């Protein structure tokens, strides 16, 4: 297991972005990560339009999401603000 990227156990619904916000750390730097409800629905094969359902979908798919996020972080695929936004899986 590669420990170059560490993920916190917490996640929360970001209503402004309509996405789940979770946090990663790489070499002491905090990276805000976001995955949209639409991507969560695609990944899980379900629908969940409410924030609590989105959090449940995230938790069900957490390991796959973190693997994808780690790959993207390793590729330095962050935006201008230093955030990682997962648009597809």
Fold topology:
Elements: E1 5-14, E2 19-26, E3 29-36, H1 37-44, H2 51-60, H3 62-74, E4 84-86
Structural account:
InterPro entries: DUF1488, Shew3726-like_sf. This is Transcriptional regulator. By secondary structure, the protein is an alpha+beta fold. The chain has a single domain (5-86), classed as Double Stranded RNA Binding Domain, CATH 3.30.160.140. It has helices spanning 37-44, 51-60, 62-74; strands spanning 5-14, 19-26, 29-36, 84-86. Strand 1 (5-14) and strand 2 (19-26) form a beta hairpin. Helix 1 crosses helix 2 (51-60). The longest helix is centred in the C-terminal third of the chain and has 13 residues, at 62-74.
The CATH homologous superfamily is termed Shew3726-like
Tell me the number of helical segments per DSSP (H or I, 4 or more residues long). 3
> SSE order, as H and E?
EEEHHHE
The strands making up the biggest β-sheet line up spatially as: 1-2-3-4
Structural class: alpha+beta
Query: What is the CATH level 1 assignment?
Result: Alpha Beta
The domain count comes to 1
Query: What's the CATH architecture name?
Result: 2-Layer Sandwich
Helix content: 25-40%
State mean pLDDT (0 to 100 scale): 89
In angstroms, what is the radius of gyration? 12 Å
Shape: globular
Low-confidence region ranges: none
């Amino acid at each position: 297991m590669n420990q170059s990227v560490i993920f916190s156990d917490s996640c929360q619904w970001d209503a402004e972005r309509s996405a789940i916000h979770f946090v990663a750390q790489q070499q002491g730097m905090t990276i805000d990560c976001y995955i949209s409800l639409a991507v969560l629905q695609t990944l899980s094969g379900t629908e969940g339009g409410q924030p609590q359902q989105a959090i449940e979908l995230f938790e069900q798919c957490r390991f796959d999401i973190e693997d994808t996020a780690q790959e993207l972080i390793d590729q330095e695929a962050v935006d201008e603000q230093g955030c990682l936004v997962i648009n597809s899986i």
